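Before relying on records like the one below, remember that each one covers exactly one chain. Contacts with other chains, cofactors or solvent are not represented anywhere in the record.
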Amino acid sequence: MIQLLLSGLIFATTLQDAPAADVQIAPQTEFQTPEVRLTERLDALAEAGPREAAPLIDEIHALWAHSGSATIALLMDRGRAAEQADNADIAARMYDHVTQIDPGFAEGWLAAGRMAAQAEDWAYALESLNTALTLEPRRYDAYLTIARLLERANEVEAALEAYEDALAIYPAHPGAIEARDRLLALQAGRAL
């Protein structure tokens, strides 16, 4: 036991005599709330090219998907799993539960609107998507879904406006750029 104590003292003394190592300490970053991070990422997205946008989109979607509620997270996970399994009825039911439990969660309304559109319940789809946009006006994906619905209804002018709204938030979105350009060409053809 004494020998163990002596070994410890010798080791401690050796450490004290050793020169200080060059230790790099990472600079401290200020804590950011999710809302501040989301705003920063969306601002960066408005300036990003296609290559820079991908990691921003991943983080933005993760921030939008975070509800802060285990129940909501579970229902959203079950809804996504049902969607992937092509079980639209269960997915729609899960998302409707989300909107009832937390009517302030835009992600739930967006998912409910997407499922309503898939079921061709146009009125509920537009109502849900507009609710999502009321709660989070920066949801470019809600604008895209509305634009597709309007385009399908042959409301070219309104669809074009919705694509432009999406592109104001996410200017490098390839699908929105293509759709907008297609509708502009269609309008130009009608003008002739």
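The chain has a mean pLDDT of 89.
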